[in-house]
Amino acid sequence: MTDLPSTKTATHDLKRHLPDLPLVIWMVLLTLALGFAGGMGADDVIAKINTGFGRALGEFALILLPSFTLAAALSQRNVGSAAAGRTAALASPLAGGGMICPDTAYAALSPAAGRLKLDVAFGSYAGFKLLYPAGPLIVATGLGMTGAAGAEPVTLLICGVLLTLPVWAAGVIWGRFARVDSHAGSKRPADAAAGTLLITFAPFLLMTGLLIAGGIIGSTGWGLVDFLLLPKGALTAAAVLALLQTPSGARRGCLDSAVRRTGSLLLVIGAASALGAAFTGLVTLDGLVPRGSGMLTLVALFALTVLFKLAQGSSMATFAAIAPVAAPIVMTSGVNGIAAVFAICLGSFIAILPNDSFYWLVRRDALETEQSEARVIRILTGGAVVQALVGMAVLLAALAIWP
User: Fold this and answer.
1) How many Å apart are CA 171 and CA 335, to the nearest integer?
2) Do 385 and 378 meet the contact criterion of CB atoms below 8 Å apart?
3) What's the N-to-C CA distance of the chain in angstroms?
4) Are 163 and 342 in contact (CB under 8 A)?
5) Judging by beta carbons within 10 Å of its beta carbon (0-12, 13-18, 19+), is residue 134 exposed, middle or buried?
6) Where are the domains of the chain?
7) What span, in angstroms and rounded, lies between the C-alpha atoms of 105 and 92?
8) Are 160 and 131 spatial neighbours (Cβ–Cβ below 8 Å)?
9) pLDDT tens per residue, range 38-67
10) Predicted TM-score of the model (pTM)
């Protein structure tokens, strides 16, 4: 025990002397270091970086631009609901998945949640991570699985729903036991005009209708129609409708916000893809992850995603960064692709910490009466960890029963 202070001091000194660099800079530097350490020439290293930045960035742009436009447009609306807090809690996973943003889903539903704000928080978080077209679509795109056999939107949607139910329940139960006070001082906001919530969620109803129509109709041979019936086209249509519902003076601001957020994430995606290309050029992944080691591969993907999430904080940035790095492992291991997608999604649950914007949103609303920051971290991080472990247990059990 006497060595503990010196150990802490040494760790602090090490962190103090390390450069304080953004994750994307670290990935670019590590890509260069791996390339040159592996004996590559300058042209080969640059080619690896070009390959990384060219990988699926267009697809990500078509997902992220409408997603962030949708989130920005919804943030302009002050949603109040006549429904009870229980209804808001029940809607939270759908909102998290449909809005492709747990922050926006929570902000939209919390005014109606009353004493169930923590339920809404964990529900929004679970829906964003596990429900199509949020986390599963983003990760599947990063893994190069969109359109692949067995990774159809309907399959991702069904698997996501089946995982969301126990994961969401685990978060709600944790919240009830971790926080025993009852928000007795919370005041319920005045009811909004009838139909306000329906109007707000109209973009998601449109998106759902287009996706269902696409699954039923299939290809029509008309380029624009076929695009709108695909997930990226349905997202774009939903974003356009959300913009039309936004006051004209705020529309440009929504688009500027979407461009800024998309641009920064595309840079992270490109750097992560380049790092993955350089890494696979030096390491034989068949030796690291032998074929037939499905369970171990899923656990490894889960753990790798946890490391990215702890370092990055942002869930969206974690999805963007981990998928290109994990893609070669998934391809060479022979692991079930759908299971790999959800192992990554579950790893991104850990954890809700102060480097995550969602932490501060929930902390300043649902947990505003908590005086101890350590207690807030225990409530939010503990709930996210429980959700992740329950989900991973269900995933591994399902894979053992139906390989």
Assistant:
1) 28
2) no
3) 48
4) yes
5) buried
6) 22-182+249-401
7) 7
8) yes
9) 787 888 888 877 776 765 567 677 777 887
10) 0.66
